[in-house]
């Protein structure tokens, strides 16, 4: 009855909403400025993003209809502004913001203004206030002051949330209990695990309609309301102004009605409270007990007759159950796939089921009264009596064995025999259970052949094949199998390696043993595959490189084993080391050639600057002297001398540019000044802002390191100019852990590092310069996310 009345109340509340919900009262059209009206006429179709969270926005799949306070608000704005809205639904605000960045939505109602959101949206003034309410039990409810609550008064609140952070920062005396959702907070309140709960008004309006929370009441407000705003795209400020005018045109009373209809909590009437129904139930229980007393008094007159009738019925039912159980037992024995024989002490068969007759090849009833020696020629009377006595004494050794039975057609049938002693009425029997094991023996033979074949293959593998498992009793590792290839690989026989004091770990080189133990122990703890490469010693003391791989497998009994192989990779390892040495020598040669080239560039730059500069200076002086001496004699000569002076000035600038390209003189002032100078040149050439951060006090660097860092910077800025399409570039130079770190970042189009062309030698050249200085380089880039290049070079102060 209670549930029916609650459903009727809820249906009455929701009926107008499902029918379309009374819309906000319409008002005259919004007055816009001419520029705003012109912009709005060009952008009538707008895309609205909604975060589906009742009661702000919800979607009825059956009716294919959106409803909620934010939906009604946007419909009102659409009618007043003449907009054509397209709706898009999202599960959370993060997905909504991703759609905004992709340009898939234009505006979104019901958002709160945050510092992070200001970088993405333009927010209107608040159009609705959603307070955060304190909820307590209806019984003894009084107004609550959070500052007066003690540490024993537990307050349930959703965590993580801005409300929880506000309570923790404002009321340090509160004992907060974090829950994942508002429903759990109210449930903690009902189960007396919390004294109060903090829930926002919107969620409370949704949950207060449920009977589970009918005994709760609002006892206070924490003073941190949620202010709902309409957010729009930052690149459309005209839309934000138009929405602001539209919101200002909504009458306050209409917004209040919208708030009351969707967000105001609705509590059940007193007649629907649990106390009311408990009292009514007690009254009905009292009436029921009175009626039961009358019925019991009447039935006492029939008690004796009913007992007699029940006893007769139970006796009949038990007899029918025993007969049914006997029929089922007989049917089960007859239809069993295991042959069953009842044999008397004289070894004659007294009963045989159909499976035993089919197994031995006899027709139905032909086995009765036959002696067992007809089926098992070796079962003479003395042996039979011995089996009888031992089975009767419950000797397990005599109760189970394998033998061969003689079929009626003369063929031998391998069977598994189980004996069980049985007393039935006044006689004793041995129940013989026969199971055909022909297929089992055939499978066992195939298994043995497969194992022999596997051992033969493993023995011919040019390496060592092993199986590693844990001893179930002791919990220690052991090698149940090691192939014969161990003698050729390490000089030990399989039996020697299987000894607990030897194993594979004893063969590992002492310097590599810690790494081997770490890899193997990690695999054993997690029951996973493992792989290791390192040095091992043979029995003769010869050092070899080995590659050990093992794969895990779970057996049918739950045991975990590792099947693995040990390969001799000494030749390939030696070739790899030789290749590494060759690459190191090539890198040293490249470093030497690069140093020689930079020195030659510096020498040529000095000669060009000094020699050509002096000669051009003298030439300029001579031209000036000629101009002073002869210019007045001939106007044409004066013009020619002026042209020569201009050519000499251009030649001066050309000499400076060539010398600077060979080796910038600014490097003599330090790497920090050189970086700042190169950044300013980059700005002047590309008009791209370049932010530079360098420390004030840098340790002195060798000319080779300073030149290499400068060349890396030049190459990186060249790549930014050619490919990045960036708006800004950031360059930073810092000291970290006795290392000099140079970072060049841009906000350009980025790229996938794996998609770089093999013939692009810019990155290869930078990486080689870094490796020659003993440093490292890291390149981070994603399409559309820009590029960041970090170079780290160690500072060797004694060699700087």
TrEMBL record:
Cofactor(s), by name: [4Fe-4S] cluster
E.C. numbers: 2.7.13.3
SUPFAM superfamilies: ATPase domain of HSP90 chaperone/DNA topoisomerase II/histidine kinase, Periplasmic binding protein-like II, PYP-like sensor domain (PAS domain)
Signal peptide: 1-21
Region Disordered, annotated ranges: 781-800
Ranges for domain PAC: 399-449, 530-581
Record bears the keyword Manganese: no
Enzyme class: transferase
Domain PAS: 450-527
Residue ranges annotated for the Histidine kinase domain, each copy included: 603-797
InterPro entries: HATPase_C_sf (IPR036890), HATPase_dom (IPR003594), His_kinase_dom (IPR005467), PAC (IPR001610), PAS (IPR000014), PAS-assoc_C (IPR000700), PAS-like_dom_sf (IPR035965), PAS_4 (IPR013656)
Highest rank taxon of the organism: Bacteria
Keywords, in A-Z order: 4Fe-4S, Coiled coil, Cytoplasm, Iron, Iron-sulfur, Kinase, Metal-binding, Signal, Transferase, Two-component regulatory system
Subcellular location: Cytoplasm
Keyword Coiled coil among record annotations: yes
Coiled coil stretches, renumbered: 572-599
Job description of the protein: Member of the two-component regulatory system NreB/NreC involved in the control of dissimilatory nitrate/nitrite reduction in response to oxygen. NreB functions as a direct oxygen sensor histidine kinase which is autophosphorylated, in the absence of oxygen, probably at the conserved histidine residue, and transfers its phosphate group probably to a conserved aspartate residue of NreC. NreB/NreC activates the expression of the nitrate (narGHJI) and nitrite (nir) reductase operons, as well as the putative nitrate transporter gene narT.
Family annotation (PANTHER family): NITRATE/NITRITE SENSOR PROTEIN NARX-RELATED, OXYGEN SENSOR HISTIDINE KINASE NREB
Protein name as catalogued: Oxygen sensor histidine kinase NreB
Origin species: Pseudomonas fontis
């Amino acid at each position: 009855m209670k549930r029916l009345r609650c459903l009727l109340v809820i249906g009455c509340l929701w009926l107008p909403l499902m029918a379309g919900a009374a819309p906000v009262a319409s008002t005259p059209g919004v007055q816009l400025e001419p520029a705003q009206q012109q912009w709005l006429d060009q952008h009538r179709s707008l895309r609205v993003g909604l975060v589906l969270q009742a009661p702000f926005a919800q979607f009825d799949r059956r009716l294919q209809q959106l409803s909620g306070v934010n939906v009604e608000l946007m419909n009102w704005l659409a009618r007043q502004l003449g907009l054509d809205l397209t709706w898009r639904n999202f599960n959370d605000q993060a997905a909504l913001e991703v759609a905004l960045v992709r340009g898939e939505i234009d505006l979104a109602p019901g958002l709160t203004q945050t510092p992070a959101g200001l970088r993405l949206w333009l927010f209107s003034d608040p159009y609705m206030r959603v307070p955060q309410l304190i909820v307590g039990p209806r019984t003894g409810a009084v107004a609550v002051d959070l500052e007066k609550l003690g540490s024993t008064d537990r307050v349930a609140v959703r965590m993580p949330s801005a409300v929880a952070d506000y309570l923790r920062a404002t009321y340090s005396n509160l004992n907060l209990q974090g829950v994942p959702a508002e429903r759990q907070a109210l449930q903690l309140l009902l189960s007396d695990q919390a004294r109060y709960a903090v829930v926002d008004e919107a969620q409370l309006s949704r949950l207060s309609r449920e009977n589970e929370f009918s005994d709760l009441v609002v006892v206070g407000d924490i003073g941190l309301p949620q202010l709902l705003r309409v957010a729009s795209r930052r690149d459309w400020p005209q839309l934000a102004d138009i929405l602001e005018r539209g919101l200002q045109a909504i009458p306050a009373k209409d917004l209040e009605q919208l708030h009351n209809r969707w967000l105001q909590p609705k509590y059940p009437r007193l007649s629907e409270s649990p106390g009311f129904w408990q009292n009514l139930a007690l009254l009905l229980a009292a009436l029921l007990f009175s009626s039961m007393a009358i019925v019991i008094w009447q039935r006492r007159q029939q008690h004796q007759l009913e007992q007699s009738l029940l006893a007769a019925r139970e006796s009949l039912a038990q007899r029918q159950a025993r007969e049914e159980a006997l029929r089922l037992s007989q049917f089960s024995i007859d239809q069993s796939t295991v042959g069953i024989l009842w044999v008397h002490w004289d070894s004659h068969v007294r009963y045989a089921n159909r499976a035993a007759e089919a197994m031995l090849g006899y027709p139905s009833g032909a086995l009765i009264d036959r002696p067992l020696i007809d089926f098992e020629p070796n079962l003479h009377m003395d042996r039979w009596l011995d089996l009888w006595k031992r089975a009767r004494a419950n000797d397990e050794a005599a109760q189970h064995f394998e033998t061969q039975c003689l079929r009626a057609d003369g063929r031998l049938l391998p069977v598994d025999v189980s004996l069980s002693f049985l007393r039935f009425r006044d006689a004793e029997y041995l129940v013989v259970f026969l199971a055909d094991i022909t297929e089992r023996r055939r499978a066992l033979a195939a298994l043995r052949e497969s194992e022999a074949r596997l051992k033969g293959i493993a023995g011919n593998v040019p390496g060592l094949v092993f199986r590693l498992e844990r001893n179930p009793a002791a919990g220690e590792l052991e090698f149940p199998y090691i192939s014969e290839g161990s003698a050729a690989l390490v000089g030990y026989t399989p039996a020697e390696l299987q000894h607990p004091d030897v194993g594979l770990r004893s063969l590992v080189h002492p310097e590599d043993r810690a790494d081997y133990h770490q890899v193997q122990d990690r695999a054993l703890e997690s029951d996973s595959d493992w792989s290791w490469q390192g040095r091992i010693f043979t029995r003769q003391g010869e050092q070899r490189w080995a590659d050990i791989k093992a794969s895990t497998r779970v057996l049918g009994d739950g045991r975990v084993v590792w099947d693995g192989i040990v390969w001799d990779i000494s030749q390939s390892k030696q070739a790899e080391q030789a290749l590494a040495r060759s690459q190191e020598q090539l890198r040293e040669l490249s470093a030497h050639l690069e140093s020689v080239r930079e020195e030659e560039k510096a020498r040529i730059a000095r000669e060009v600057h000094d020699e050509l500069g002096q000669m051009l200076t003298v030439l300029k002086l001579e031209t000036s002297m000629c101009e002073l001496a002869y210019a007045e004699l001939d106007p044409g000569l004066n013009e020619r001398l002026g042209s020569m002076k201009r050519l000499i000035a251009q030649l001066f600038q050309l000499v400076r540019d060539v010398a600077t390209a060979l080796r910038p003189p600014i490097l003599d002032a330090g790497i920090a000044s050189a970086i700042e100078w190169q950044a300013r040149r980059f700005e002047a050439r590309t008009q791209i802002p370049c932010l530079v951060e360098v420390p004030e006090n840098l340790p002195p660097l060798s000319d080779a390191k300073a030149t290499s860092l400068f060349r890396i910077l030049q190459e990186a800025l060249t790549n930014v100019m050619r490919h990045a399409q960036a708006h800004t570039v950031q360059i930073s130079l810092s000291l970290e852990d006795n290392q000099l770190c140079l970072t060049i970042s841009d906000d350009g189009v980025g790229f996938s590092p794996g998609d770089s062309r093999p013939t692009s030698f810019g990155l290869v050249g930078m990486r080689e310069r870094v490796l020659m200085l003993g440093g490292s380089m890291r390149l981070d880039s994603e399409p559309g996310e820009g590029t960041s290049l970090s170079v780290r070079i160690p500072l060797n102060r004694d060699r700087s």
